[in-house]
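User: Show me a protein chain along with its predicted structure.
Assistant: Here is one chain, sequence first, then C-alpha cells.
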Amino acid sequence: MDRINQVIRSISGHDSKTCYHALRQAVGYTLEQLPMHPQMKDIAREAARRSGNPDGEKAAAKALGRAAADVWEYGCRANLERIFGRPLLEAPTPKSLVWTLAEYIRETEGQPEGQYTVSGEQLQRLLELLTELPSGR
C-alpha cells in the first residue's frame, strides 16, 4: 500500500480528502486483479467493502469520481501525464485513472522513485545534446 500511497500523492490535489481513500482501495484491488481489468461496479463494490462499508458501492463510485476530478483540477498534471504516458486533453474517467494507476504501479514495481528507463535512441540524443553545451558550463 505504500507504493499506492506514494503514486497517488504524486498526482493528488488534496490528498487528505476522503475520496482518496476510495481511490487507494480501488487501485489496490485492481492491482491484485491484473492483468484482468475488473468492471467499475466490481471496483466500487470492493473499494466500499475494504473501506468498511459493504453496502456503499454507490458512495464509493461517487468518491472515485470526486478523486478523478480533484486530480484533474488541482493535482500535478505533469506527473499524471507521465503516469499515463501521454499528454491528456481531458480529465481521465475514474475507470481509466484506477486502471492506469494500477498498471503503472505494477510496471514500475521495484524501481526507485525518480529512476527512469530510456531507449538507446533517447540516450544517444541526450549525449548529443550534452556534448553541444558550451565548455564553460
